[in-house]
Amino acid sequence: MDYKKTNAPNNTITRDMNVLCGDVENVYETVKIIGKRANQISIELKNELEKKLQEFASYSDNLEEVFENREQIEISRFYEKLPKPTLIATQEFIEGNVFYRNPSNIKK
User: What pTM does this model have?
Assistant: First the structure.
């Protein structure tokens, strides 16, 4: 998923949980679903950022040398400006883009 083109807001929005959990019919399950998806998004974004910053890594033995790399700073700022994973996960849940299932509800 391309999180850079998401419709998620950058600021926190107060939401009515009764409306948000319409399909699930349980507030706690809704929060759990959104929380698990937010963790997945957070891990994906962290791995993507580390992979991009790895290109700029300096493996020198001298710890006193500090290199400022403009591209590295710009990449970090870009990721800081993205909406938080919880906001992205909530927006995905509202749009119906999150697949979830409850194993206890599956009929055998």
Answer: 0.78
